[in-house]
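Minutes, project huddle
Topic: does the predicted pose make sense with pyridoxal-5'-phosphate bound?
PN asked that the exact inputs be recorded in the minutes so nobody has to dig through chat later. Recorded below.
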Amino acid sequence: MKLFDVYPINEITITKARGSYVWDDKGDQYLDLYGGHAVISIGHNHPHWVERIEDQLEKIAFYSNSIRIPLQQQLAEKLGKISGKEDYQLFLCNSGAEANENALKLASFHNGRKKVVAFTKSFHGRTSLAVAATDNKNLVAPVNETGNVMFLPFNDEEALVECFKTNGSEISSVIIEGIQGVGGINVADDSFLKKIRSLCDEYGAVYIADSVQCGYGRTGKFFSHDFAGVNADIYTMAKGMGNGFPVAGIIVAPNIKPRHFILGTTFGGNHLACVAALAVLEVIEKEKLMGNAVMIGKYLREELSAIPELKNVRGRGLMIGFDTPEELKDLKKNLLTNHKIFTGEAKPNVIRLLPSLALKKKDAEQFIESLKEEIHQILSPTSVNLT
Ligand SMILES: Cc1ncc(COP(=O)(O)O)c(C=O)c1O
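Predicted holo structure (tokens), as shared on screen:
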């Protein structure tokens, strides 16, 4: 059997990983500033995470939600404490798309409405409604097409107010990333998120904060939406939550009440997923990784802003993007091939940095040095490389 070919891939086989490094089958070491798409939060194979999972494996790996799983309550309490949302309610699932799908569905159950407001350049996942709320026609199959999603320009308060004036009584939810990831690292304005909050309050709509990529401490606050100083009704999370173990969830404000069977999952919240997620929170807290994300992120943004060839350096904490001009279109590829550094991208010309929150200063320095060297090499290819 062949693999179903849906991914353009790098021909690299990774066989070992630790911290911010991975090694391929030839023994070559790579610096990972991509984290497998923002997934590696506390560092590859963190010893505490490995130990927690191994210990749990010896006991029980999985049972479904038909029994009480005390680890889920432990996770809810820890998550409430670290995120400052102690009065919220946790529902666990398995992926970012599933988290958003559940959030949109729950909002609709809650207020009995159908319309969803989403924004240009959004990415919310590939399941039915999540993909319908994703601003990329190529990903939406005919069966996912719905008249229920309205796309508005990102950060445009006037358009938002107008939309609510016209459709307010029909709008079930507004879904927005605190920082758009796939869309190219676009930070939602604090005033825009405040406006979403106040309009949702006024019209009885649900504010859904998609924190799948920008959440879990990556920006220095647990949820990047929190920079705006207002709460969302539902936060969705995945990626960094398990540091590579598939686990996701939504947290739900206390005014949204649960009913049996409106949401459900076979695998969500299993024993192994819970310990992986607990281990991540324990390490984030113990190693003060949100503070590290702020510090290393600031260093990186300052250094990147001082490189004249790179434009529009942006982001928060360790979620950083910058534009590359046409002459540097091979920069990302060359960083990987010539310097063994993984970075991310967003079409057409954005480089995205999504490293582990434990990224060390020396690794950030190495990246900046390699980046400058590669830019110099691309722009003056005949010069001799002395390093
Ligand atoms: C903001 C955002 N939401 C949702 C998703 C979907 O997550 P998953 O791939 O785990 O379904 C992603 C994935 O990149 C994302 O970046």
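Observations noted during the meeting:
- The radius of gyration is 21 Å.
- The first helix runs from residue 35 to 38.
No decisions taken; revisit at the next huddle.
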